[in-house]
Amino acid sequence: MLMRTDPFREMDRIVQQLSGTSGTWSKPSVMPMDAYREGDVYVIAFDLPGVSTDAIDIDVERNMLTVKAERRPVAKADSVKMELSERPLGVFSRQIVLADTLDTEHIEADYDAGVLTLRIPIAERAKPRKISIGAGAGPKQISA
Q1: 76 phi/psi in degrees, rounded to 5
Q2: Which of 17, 49, 71, 121 has the fewest beta carbons under 10 Å from its own?
Q3: Which distant-in-sequence residues (6+ apart) come within 8 Å of 67 by Cβ?
Q4: Is residue 22 within 8 Å of 42, Cβ to Cβ?
Q5: How many Cβ atoms sit within 10 Å of the Cβ of residue 48?
Q6: How far is residue 121's CA from residue 118's CA, in Å, rounded to a whole number?
Q7: What is the pLDDT of residues 66-118, one digit of tens each?
């Protein structure tokens, strides 16, 4: 139902984790996701803990789904001295090519407990259907 657009994205994510660099708007980090079919709906879930809903942007252009999010640093008082900072900050993004069999006009998005869940219905034209056979007059004769 979807195709990966960049085979090296996972390598970039691992390098960013090891080097401690954060994503920027020009080179965002990858956000982890799961994708599965649940009946007549395709579900995509993105892990975005600590991101507020106003910092999430979802776009669909033709069959290209783009999700961008930004985890901003929490404002701290001047007297606070950071001892350890392992939670990644910055911009996260994911682009997914959706199949033509999905109805991109009716995507639903929910955000709960740090997980952004998109539900994309399977298009009616892609669902299996029975074809009825009409009672015809038999084979047609070709006249010369």
Answers
A1: -120, 150
A2: 49
A3: 31, 46, 56, 57, 58, 93, 94, 116, 118
A4: no
A5: 22
A6: 10
A7: 999 998 877 778 888 878 777 778 888 999 999 989 999 999 999 999 999 99
